[in-house]
């Protein structure tokens, strides 16, 4: 995977928000090398989650609560209903969609 990311600068943009891949840096030895962390720092500055990373790996991960699973699926379905022109529009859509989520929606996922 790391080689594919390095060879094709658009690779992450093509799969990051698709159902084709899940990126998870869980601290397993193959992902703990300095080379891997260097690439993560370059590609996702100050924004990747993992052992030795800028954001610590959450306790009990990779378990995802139903509310979290629902939330990301819901947001993705809403924001990608039509093509996105740029990152500004993406951020605006994410913000607007998150604002539509209320506690009742989240309680129904438990």
TrEMBL record:
Gene Ontology terms for molecular function: nucleic acid binding
Annotated InterPro entries: RNaseH_sf (IPR036397)
Source species, domain of life: Eukaryota
The protein's name: Tc1-like transposase DDE domain-containing protein
Source organism of the structure: Araneus ventricosus
């Amino acid at each position: 995977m790391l080689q594919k990311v390095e060879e094709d600068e658009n690779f992450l943009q093509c799969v990051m928000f698709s159902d084709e891949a899940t990126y998870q840096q869980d601290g397993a030895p193959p992902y703990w090398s300095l080379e891997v962390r260097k690439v993560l720092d370059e590609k996702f500055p100050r924004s990747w989650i993992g052992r030795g990373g800028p954001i610590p790996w959450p306790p009990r991960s990779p378990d995802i609560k139903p509310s979290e699973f629902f939330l990301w699926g819901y947001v993705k379905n809403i924001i990608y209903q039509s093509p996105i022109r740029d990152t500004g529009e993406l951020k605006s859509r994410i913000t607007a969609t998150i604002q539509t989520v209320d506690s009742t929606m989240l309680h129904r996922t438990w």
